[in-house]
C-alpha cells in the first residue's frame, strides 16, 4: 500500500526551539487521522506546514507521490478549516462557499449549483444570503467546512474546529464532520487536544509531544496499549505506577521496566458479602481505604489507598458498588495481566 | 429587572448630557461671541451682527489659508495611507517579529515635543543635500511623522480585529493569490478602521499649529497660522474664524463618515 499523503522528516524551528522534530507520517486515501496532543506540542504547526502557511526547515511532503513543499498554498489542493472559522465577514454565506471556485475560474452557474449542493449538505439553505456574523458558532463552522469542500481538495485539514463550541453542538458537529468525511471519502487530518474527540472520530490517532509523534495507532490500540508514561497519562485516567509501587501491590513483577500503567476499570472492588475467594483465585487481593468518591454519571470513580499507593478506580454505576464507598475499607482484586510495562520517554 | 435596565440607561444618558454641556459651553460662548456686536455688561449680547463673518470671508487670506491647509493635509494623509497600508499589512502578517520594534518607533512622535522636532528639522534641512526648510515639502514630511502613530495603530488594530492572518491563509488555500486575497477579503474588512484613522489623522493635522508655525510660518499660511495672527486683532473675528473652522471640520467628518459607511455597504451588498 502506498501512502496518499506522506510526510518525511519534517523539521521546523522557531528561534532555538524545535517545534517539529523529524516528523514522519503516512496517510491513506480517505483516512481520517487525528493529531492529538497538549497545546504547544506542534500539532497545529504541522498542519500549517502541510497547508503551506508555515515554511518547513527540512523534510518532504508528498501528495500522491509528488513533493508539494515548494508549491504555494493555493497550488497544493489542500483545504483547511480554522479554529476561528476565518469566514470572510464581507461576503455572504453563499459567496463564502463560492469564493474558492471563483478564484479558480469556475462559471457562475457551476458555482451556484455547487454552493446549493453544499448548503443542502450542511443544512443551511435558508442562510445563503446571511453574513457570517449573523450565524451561530456551529453554523459558521459548517459554512467553513462547506467552503473548504467546495474546491474539492485532495486533503482536508481541520485545526481544532470544535474547540470554540459548547459541548452539545460539539458532539453533533463531530458526528456531522465524520459523516461528511466518509461520504466524500475525504482524506482528513484533524487536530485536537481532546482525547475523547480523537478516539471517537479517528481511523487512526497520532499522539504528539514536543514536536514528535510519540505513538500512533487505531483509537483502540492507543487507548489499550500506551507505550510510554506520557501516552498513558494523556489517553485516559491511567494509574501510572513506579516499580516500587508495583512491587508493593503485586509483590513481584517480571520486568525491567521502571514505570507501569494500569487502567482504572481493570480493578475489581470486592465487598464483604460478595467476596468469593474461588472466583478470584488467580488474582491478588489487596486491602485498601476509600479516600474519595465521585460520580461521573454512568461510572463511579474511587480514589483508593492500597498498600501505600493511591489508585484511581472506575466502577460501573449499577447501584450495588456505591455501598462500598460509604464504608471506607475495601478489598481490591488485582490482575497482573492488566499491568502495562511502559517504555522510557523518547525510547 | 426591566426597570433596573431602564434606570442604568437614564444614568448613562444624564452623564452623557452633563459631559456634552461641559464640552459644548465653550463652543457656544465662542459661537455667541462671533455674532455679538456689543457684549459688555449683559448676560447675552446686546446687539447682534454677522459683520465678523463677512469681514472674514472678504479676507482673501482666510480662503487661501483654508485651501492651503486642506491640500497640505490631504496630500500628507494620502501619502501616509499609500505607504503605511501596505507597510503595516506586511509587518503584521509576514514579519510579526518586527512588531515590538515598530511599536516603539511609532510612539516616538509623541515623545518628541513639536518645538524640539521643528528646531531639529530646520537645522537638518536648511543646508546640505536636501535643502527644503521653509517649503511645503518639509511640512508634508513632518506631517507624515506626526500622524504615523494614528495610522500605524489604526491599520494594525483593524488587521488584528479581523484576524487578517487567518483570513489571508483561508483565501490563499482557496486559490487566491496574495494580492487578490488582500484586495478581496482584507481591504474591504479593514476599510472602516482605516477610514477612521485617516479621518482622525486629517483632523489632527488640520488643527496642528506649533510645528507648522515654526517650520513654515513665515512662508505658508495654514488656517491655524492665520487664526493665530488674527487673534490679536479682534476677539470677535477670531471667534468667527474658530466657528467656521469648527463647522468645516464637522461637515468634513460627516462626509467622510458617510463615505466610509457607503463603501462598507457597497462591498457587503
TrEMBL record, chain A:
Residues 5-235 form the ABC transporter domain. InterPro entries: AAA+_ATPase, ABC_SmlMolc_Importer, ABC_transporter-like_ATP-bd, ABC_transporter-like_CS, P-loop_NTPase. PROSITE patterns: ABC_TRANSPORTER_1, ABC_TRANSPORTER_2. Keywords: ATP-binding, Nucleotide-binding, Transport. The keyword Transport applies. One of its GO terms (molecular function) is ATP binding. Transmembrane segments: none annotated. The keyword ATP-binding applies. This is Spermidine/putrescine transport system ATP-binding protein. It comes from Paenibacillus macquariensis.
From TrEMBL, chain B:
It is found in: Cell inner membrane; Cell membrane. It is a multi-pass membrane protein. It holds the Pfam family BPD_transp_1. Its main location: membrane. Keywords: Cell inner membrane, Cell membrane, Membrane, Transmembrane, Transmembrane helix, Transport. PROSITE patterns: ABC_TM1. Residues 66-256 form the ABC transmembrane type-1 domain. Signal peptide: none annotated. The chain crosses the membrane at residues 14-36, 69-95, 107-126, 132-152, 190-216, 236-257. InterPro entries: MetI-like, MetI-like_sf. PANTHER family: INNER MEMBRANE ABC TRANSPORTER PERMEASE PROTEIN YDCV. Belongs to the binding-protein-dependent transport system permease family. This is Spermidine/putrescine transport system permease protein. The lineage of its organism: Bacteria, Bacillati, Bacillota, Bacilli, Bacillales.
